[in-house]
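JOB MANIFEST
job_type = single_chain_structure
chain_count = 1
residues = 81
[input]
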Amino acid sequence: MKCNVCKTKMKDATTEIEVLVKGRKVKALNVPAYNCPNCDEIRMDELIEKLVQTYAKGSKEATFDFAEVKPRGVGITLGKK
C-alpha cells in the first residue's frame, strides 16, 4: 500500500484509536494499520475499521485490545500471527 500523502510504500504497524459509541469513548489498542516511514501517515483497511466499530459497540470497558479479540465461532485471535 502506498501513502496517499507522499506516495511512499507503507509498512505494517499497529495503532490505537478512539471510537465514539452512544456518547462514550472506547479506545482500541493494537489495531493493525499501515504507517508511512516518510511522513508518518497512518492508514487502516476498511474491514479493520468496521471490526473496531463492532467490537467497540460490544465492549463494556473503556479500552479493549484488538489483538486479544476473538471473533465468535472462529478459533483464531485477531492481530496475532
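[summary]
The chain has one helix and four strands.
The helical segments are 46-58.
exit_status = 0
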